[in-house]
Every structure is written in C-alpha cells, then in structure tokens.
Amino acid sequence: MRQRIAVVGAGPAGLAFARVLHRHGRPVSVLERDPARDARPPGGTLDLHEGMGQLALDKAGLLAGFQALSRPEGQAMRILDVDGTVLRDWRPRPDDLANPEIDRGQLRDLLLGSLDVQWGSGVTEVVPGTRDGVLVRFADGRQETFDLVVGADGAWSRVRPAVSSATPRYTGITMVETSLDDVDTRHPDLARLIGDGSLAVYGVSRALVAQRNSGGHVKVYAQFRAPLDWHAGLDWDDAAAVRSRLLAMFEGWAAPVLDLLRQGAAFVQRPLHVLPVSHTWAHVPGVTLLGDAAHLMPPLGVGANLAMLEGAELAEAVATAPGPAELDEAVRAFEERMWARAGRWAKITAAGLERLVSPDPADALAFFDELQPS
Ligand SMILES: Cc1cc2nc3c(=O)[nH]c(=O)nc-3n(C[C@H](O)[C@H](O)[C@H](O)COP(=O)(O)OP(=O)(O)OC[C@H]3O[C@@H](n4cnc5c(N)ncnc54)[C@H](O)[C@@H]3O)c2cc1C
Questions:
Q1: Does residue 344 have a known ligand-binding role?
Q2: Which of 4, 124, 224, 266 to pair with 373, CA 20 to 30 A apart?
C-alpha cells in the first residue's frame, strides 16, 4: 500500500521536498497556512550555492529554470566604512555561477510549478502514534492521518513539539527591513552606491545592508544589538517615527549611506531568533523536521540552501522506500545526516553573526575576507 505522506509548509524546504517526490511519482499532501500563493510579500533575494540550493534544484529537474531566472552579477559585494570610504569592492567573474541570486518570489513560483498545494491549511498540532498513524489537526477543525508528516513550517513550527521541546531564543540582534523601488530611475545615486549586488556598512554593534533584487527593487536591512522590547512605544504604521528612531541610532554615518533609510517607505522588524546549535531529538516514527523548523540559524546565506537540500534529500530517500519499515529507516538515516551538517553550519553562522554586528567593526571586515579571499 502507498504511504500517506504530508509536508507542512510550502517554503523552500517543503516545496523542494514535494517537488522531488513528485518527480519520483510519489503523491504528497502539501499543507500550507497561507490562504493563497500571493497572500503575503515573498521577501528579498536568496543566493543559492552550487552544492546546496542549486543541487536541490537539480534533483528537482529545475536547474535550467533557475539559471534562466537567477542573477550571477548579484554576487557582487561592496563594503563601506561608516564615513562612506569603499573598503572592499568584490565582483564575480562573468562565468562565476557559484552563488547567483534569485528573488524569493521567483524561486517559490519555480518550485511550485504545477504542484497541488492545499492553501489555507494551517496546522495546529501533530500527534504521532495514533491507531491510524500520525494525526494532523488543522486550525479550521479538520483532522487527517498520515504515515509520515514532515514539518517544514519554519521558525515557529507547530510540528516541532511532536518531536522536541526546543524553542527559538532571541540572539540580542534585531533587523529592521525597508525597501526601495525603481532604484535605477528614482534613486540613481543609491543605485550606483549599491552596485549590482549587495552593499554592507559595518559600524560599532550595528550594520546597514542593502541588497539588489530584480526589477530595480532593493531591500535594506538595519541591524543592531538591542533588547527585544527596544521599540516599546514605537508605532510601526508611523514610518516617519520609525525612520527617525533608526536615523538616531546610525547618527554620524555618511549621508549617502543614511539615504538608504531616508528613502525607505515602510519598515518591518525582524528580531533574529535561533534554535540551539546542534538541535537534535530522539527519533519519533512518522514525524520529522526540515529547514528552519529543525535548525533555525542566523540569516547568513545558508538557511534556505540547507532547507532545500534537506527537502530534496529526504524526498529521494523516502521515494525509494518500498514499505513502512524502510520508510522509517530512511527517515532515521536522513536525520543523522541532517543533524551533522546543520550543526556545523549553526556554529559557523552563530559566530558569523557575532562578528558582523560586533563592537569591533574590523572583525566584520576580517570575516568577509575569510569568506571571500582575494
Ligand atoms: C532577512 C533574511 C534574509 C535571508 N537571506 C537568506 C539567504 O540569502 N540565503 C539563505 O540560504 N537563507 C536566507 N535566509 C534564511 C531563509 O529565509 C530560511 O532559512 C528559509 O526560508 C527556511 O525555509 P523553510 O522552508 O524551512 O521555512 P520558511 O521559509 O519559514 O517556510 C515555512 C512555510 O511554512 C508555512 N507555515 C508556517 N506555519 C505553518 C502551519 N502551522 N501550518 C501550515 N503551514 C505553516 C509558512 O507560511 C511558510 O510558507 C534569510 C532569512 C531572513 C530572515
């Protein structure tokens, strides 16, 4: 009898899992809380690494589609001092396809293809070990059972409690995101400052990062050390008030750099949370986790890559399992591989975040030089 498989979450992890299973002719229920594909803005740009996100797309048969959409020139990276001096100006060779950028929305649509997603299916609870399998409860009161439930539902996973009591903790570092549209025509000076890829400015315990997306869209991230309630009393709908609070935090930085904040129309805060480094759990038959649900780590260009690779690898392992015993063994072996790899990256990204938003900005520059020698 065919195994009943569900994945909770249609982010990079869940979609890569579903797409690779689909390619192997195995049915999977994709359960997503969002009511529709475009229910919320898809977010910024992602660089997909050759041996990670790109490998996952290859396993899904989508590498050519990615190459047609992605922006190799977006790998460019410029670093400025807070006074505006250019400290590093790294540009990729024209044939460098190691880490091209792609808009999250484009990646989501590529992965979705003709997949049948059950939108508006917010999962509230997963109960393993019932007589009929793993029970999934939905916010609208429905319930359904499966042989395998894969939790790919991100940082605040509702599947995770079925296998682990771990919860994300605040890192002490917050990002506030804003964006600029039509930067080449409306803000040509900023367009030149940013270049083709990313711009970063590192100061004392704070940083400003701007990343070019496709179509002249730029996302700007102000990053700083602050308590979780640093914004008490601030009205997020009052963009002028948020802007002036941020400008005060970055006081003394060069005017062109501060224009990145001055020109931003709306602001969204993203306090950075992480799961414990090397998060593992005692294997629970019928339930597993992928991506941020399993190993939420600082956003240093790895999370989506790992999420997709794990999704693709688990799908391949599961697709070739002929029966329930083999399925469980495949999941168990996958978890061991995932934990070892994710644990290594969790350590690297935790140390990296400390260095990029550091009391000593020279440490951020040294970190960049270690990653991008020459
Ligand atoms: C600002 C920022 C920049 C980043 N840049 C990069 C980068 O350049 N490169 C990189 O590799 N990573 C990057 N990351 C990290 C990356 O975004 C995540 O690691 C990645 O999205 C994780 O994918 P995921 O599928 O595990 O989870 P998510 O992307 O969080 O997807 C989870 C999905 O599950 C759904 N869901 C949630 N709860 C439920 C529920 N109860 N029921 C049903 N569905 C549910 C959500 O709606 C969502 O669709 C960045 C992160 C941030 C915050």
A1: no
A2: 224
Which residues have a Cβ under 8 Å from the Cβ of 374 and sit 6 or more positions away? Answer: none
Say yes or no: CB of residue 18 within 6 Å of ligand 1: no
Tell me whether residue 47 is annotated as binding: yes
Among 34, 136, 153, name the best residue to mutate to test ligand 1's pocket (greatest count of ligand atoms within 8 A of Cβ).
Answer: 153
What is the Cα 187 distance to its own chain's centre?
A: 28
d(C-alpha 243, C-alpha 120), whole Å: 34
Neighbour-count burial for 299-324, b at 16+ CB within 10 Å, e otherwise: bbbbbbbbbbbbbbbbbbbbbebeee
5-71+99-168+275-356 belongs to which homologous superfamily?
A: FAD/NAD(P)-binding domain (3.50.50.60)
Task: Kindly give the number of the ligand 1 atom that is closest to the alpha carbon of 14.
Answer: 25
The C-alpha angle with vertex 335 and arms to 333 and 336, in degrees rounded to 5, equals 65
CA-angle at 26, arms to 308 and 9, nearest 5°: 40
pTM assigned to the model: 0.97
| Distance from the alpha carbon of residue 271 to the mean position of ligand 1, in angstroms | 14
Q: How many CA atoms, within 13 angstroms, populate the side-chain half-sphere of residue 164?
A: 22
User: pLDDT tens digits for 23-45?
Assistant: 999 999 999 999 999 999 989 99
Topology given in CATH for the domain delimited by 169-274: D-Amino Acid Oxidase; Chain A, domain 2 (3.30.9)
327 CB less than 6 Å from ligand 1? no
Q: What is the pLDDT of residues 92-107, one digit of tens each?
A: 998 999 999 999 999 9
Q: How many CB atoms lie within 10 A of CB 120?
A: 15
d(CA 325, ligand 1 centre) in Å: 31
**292 has binding-site annotation:** yes
